[in-house]
Amino acid sequence: MESLIFICPKTDKPIDVGVETEIGTLLRIRKNIMRSRCNACGEVHEWPVRDAYLAEAA
Ligand SMILES: [Zn+2]
After folding, report:
1. Distance from the CA of 13 to the center of ligand 1, in angstroms?
2. Over the chain (58 residues), what is each successive 10-residue block's mean pLDDT?
3. Which residue among 1, 6, 9, 54 sits deepest, i.e. has the most Cβ atoms within 10 Å of its Cβ?
4. Dihedral pair phi/psi, residue 47, rounded to 5°
5. Hey, where are the domains in the chain?
6. Distance, CA 10 to ligand 1 centroid (Å)?
7. Whole-model pTM over 0.70
8. Under CATH, to which class is 2-56 assigned?
9. How far is the CA of 3 from the centre of ligand 1 (A)?
């Protein structure tokens, strides 16, 4: 499994939203919006899934 990573629009930091997925699932949900609290700036952001990238889970 891989982690979905979004870029915080305020700090430009990569945020691991705590969602693990695989590429097949990601392609199915790419039109969705992920809503999550950002652990860089503390605000809640809405990110289009298609803007996310995948990182190997440690
Ligand atoms: Zn943020």
Report:
1. 8
2. 91 92 87 93 95 79
3. 6
4. -120, 130
5. 2-56
6. 5
7. yes
8. mainly beta
9. 17
